[in-house]
Design goal:
heterodimer; A: mainly alpha; 2 strands; B: mainly alpha; two-stranded antiparallel ribbon; 73% helix
Chain lengths: 283, 277
């Protein structure tokens, strides 16, 4: 295999694995955003907390049970944040700017609490590094796990939405909460479900990330950025489009490493997002 | 430098940034996370002009503020087309772009930053310049322009029906707020003589927003009071038994908690003309 091709293939594999992680983050972020119109920046803090919970739990309980514990912890924390912070603001009809400020403040509080609790030490679960493949192209066990779990989670969420009409109700609440309420849709329940599902997904994503990557308290912000870009670029399209966009972001970001512009990927994505928001959203 | 003097200079940095936030968010209703980016643009420009281009502190400061205003005006070509969430996200994007540039461009010192930055001229100069900037801010916000900006905040579509360009108003508000943020950035660079990308984090933006929300949107005296409270309360940590390595974290937790409490329980702030809606 020519060396150049092998490197490109390896970067593609890395990109798909990273993209699957972004897709899960984007899916969770999108569910919350569509249901509540809240740009939940504190989602990044939930990711970091989930990662630490997973690492601590995996050392004592094993990887599988630790995944369950992480999902439960993320979901509980997300619901607590919604009920204590965002729900009262919704009742007072606070604007999206007010919610975003509250989410930013929550992010700062949680990340700094986590920094104090962990003394800002990065950790990893140090799962056994199984590697498949030979030569230059390799697929680690965690990359494979990341892709499989993402596909399973995506399929599960999609089926769940189709069977329960929850996605339709979320869209109805997003488009016109009053009309949705008049049609008998309980917006509070929808928001609760959305937060629970969105935060469960961030728990899964953080556990997968912590399997073989170091996690530190500020890690969440860098991971939530591609998710925000994917959700806003997809505009009002369906969840599959958001997932595909997130995977595309992962692949292009990985290939950017090849071109020595890897450090600029966040800036490039946001540049594209800003340009599309300003000039090309309708297209 | 004495304790009071150091506190005073820090107060000036935060107050000027908060005045920029107040112009944009308080009067225009535009939530911007990019002010810290304009602060960074000015600080880096001041550092480069004074250490590598041989400019004197005063001319370097003028060039730095002009650079911040020009960069903000350029960004306004894009962001003033947006409102609400999209505007806020676009300013987050601008922050990410400027932050990436500071980290990755070798000329700007990369992650090592720039050291040996000369002072702009002592603490007295900083206090006088801040006082002059406050007078200018008060004057600007008594002009008809400011009332049009409030109209944009209330209903931008109605403003355009009246034949006034809401985009021009937004762009001018962005430029004016960048001038105050830029002046704040010059003071940051000049007072600590060393800057790196970490100096201009989102936490700084959050602090500026918190000052304005605690003091109240659209109020000068509120902004001053908010800055005194938010800078004064964490100073208590110095006198109680808090580990030094945790002080910065606790300070940011306090800022976050205060911001959260005011958004949730007192959206008018202490002396605000408008509320966080």
């Amino acid at each position: 295999m020519p060396a150049q091709f092998a490197v490109a293939l390896q970067l593609l594999i890395n990109g798909v694995a990273a993209g699957c992680l972004y897709a899960m983050m984007a899916l969770g972020f999108a569910i919350i955003y569509r249901a509540t119109k809240i740009l939940l920046i504190s989602y990044g803090a939930l990711f970091a907390i989930g990662g630490y919970v997973y690492v601590v739990a995996s050392l004592r309980l094993g990887l599988g049970i630790a995944l369950g514990a992480t999902i439960i912890a993320s979901t509980t924390l997300g619901l607590v944040l919604f009920r204590i912070i965002h729900r009262p603001l919704q009742v007072r009809r606070t604007s999206s700017a007010g919610h975003m400020l509250a989410a930013l403040a929550t992010y700062s509080i949680l990340v700094n609490l986590l920094s104090i609790a962990t003394k800002s030490r990065p950790v990893t679960s140090a799962a056994r590094a199984l590697v498949f493949g030979h030569g230059i192209v390799r697929l680690t066990a965690t990359q494979g796990t990341s892709v499989i779990i993402s596909i399973v989670a995506f399929t599960f969420v999609n089926r769940f939405f189709r069977r329960t009409d929850l996605w339709l109700e979320i869209r109805a609440v997003h488009d016109d909460p009053e009309l949705a309420g008049a049609s008998g849709i309980d917006a509070l329940s929808i928001s609760n479900y959305a937060f629970a599902l969105g935060c469960a997904l961030v728990g899964v994503a953080s556990a997968i990330f912590a399997l073989d990557s170091q996690i530190d308290p500020n890690q969440g912000f860098t991971v939530v950025l591609p998710a925000i870009v994917a959700v806003l670029l997809a505009a009002k399209r369906d969840l599959e489009s958001i997932g595909l966009l997130a995977v595309a972001i992962g692949i292009v970001s990985s290939l950017a490493e090849w071109l020595n512009v890897g450090a600029w990927t966040s800036a490039l994505w946001f540049g594209a997002l800003v340009a599309i928001l300003a000039f090309g959203r309708r297209s | 430098m004495g304790y009071i003097s150091v506190f005073g200079v820090y107060f000036c940095q935060v107050l000027l940034l908060a005045l920029g936030v107040n112009s944009l968010f308080g009067f225009g209703g535009l939530l911007s996370l990019a002010l810290v980016a304009w602060q960074a643009v000015a600080a880096y420009t001041y550092a480069i002009a004074s250490t590598r281009l041989g400019c004197g502190p005063l001319s370097a400061a003028c060039i730095a503020i002009a650079a911040a205003v020009m960069a903000a005006t350029l960004s306004a070509l894009v962001s003033c087309r947006l409102s609400d969430d999209d505007f806020a996200v676009s300013t987050l994007g601008i922050y990410v772009i400027v932050s990436s540039a500071c980290r990755n461009i070798a000329f700007l010192g990369g992650t090592l930053g720039i050291s040996g930055i000369p002072s702009v001229g002592g603490d007295a100069v900083i206090f006088i310049v801040t006082a002059v900037a406050c007078v200018i801010w008060l004057y600007i916000h008594q002009t008809p322009w400011s009332r049009w900006l409030i109209a944009v905040r209330d209903d931008e579509r109605r403003v355009s029906f009246l034949g006034v360009s809401d985009r021009s108003l937004k762009a001018s508000a962005i430029a004016i707020s960048a001038a105050f943020a830029g002046l704040s950035g010059v003071i940051v660079a000049s007072s600590v003589s060393y800057i790196d990308p970490g100096t201009f984090s989102l936490a700084v933006s959050l602090e500026g927003l918190a000052v304005v929300i605690v003091g109240g949107l659209g109020s000068f005296s509120g902004t001053v009071a908010g800055a005194l409270i938010l800078l004064g309360v964490p100073e208590v940590l110095r006198w109680i038994n808090v580990p030094v390595e945790s002080q910065a974290n606790i300070r940011q937790i306090l800022v976050g908690l205060v911001l959260l409490m005011f958004v949730a329980l007192r959206p008018n702030g202490l002396l605000g003309r408008f509320r966080v809606e």
